[in-house]
Amino acid sequence: MNAFIDTHRGVDGVEPICKVLPIAPSTYYWHAARRVDPRRRPTRTQRDERLCESIQRIWEENFQVYGARKVWWQLRRAGIIVARCAVEQLMRRLGLKGVRRGRSIKTTLSNRNVPSPLDRVHRQFTADRPDALWVADFT
């Protein structure tokens, strides 16, 4: 809603738009002030921004191989006490992943050029009424 109000406030003004939309003008101004002044943001948002910087720095210093657990331990060594689940969440938000050991798991690779096997049991995948046709495939 804030983006809509921002784009149309020059034409219609904030208060008339807020009368139509289910938002109070004071709420719009409050959110606009928080966007402009970072000190007015919630404490958790400020903390998460600082943690994101630390997590990004630690991940890059360790050749981008550390996962959430090792980043969490490194933060603890630096004296930053934070829950491991919070580190996992912030790393997900930043798109950071650790390197996994072993080979990657590959499932069946389909080849559309190879013909499919013939239907030797003449399966019918339609039913006249509910629970009239049961199909089990053990291939």
UniProtKB/TrEMBL annotation:
Domain HTH-like: 47-103
Pfam families according to UniProt: HTH_21
Name of the protein described by the UniProt record: Transposase
Organism in which the protein naturally occurs: Candidatus Competibacter denitrificans Run_A_D11
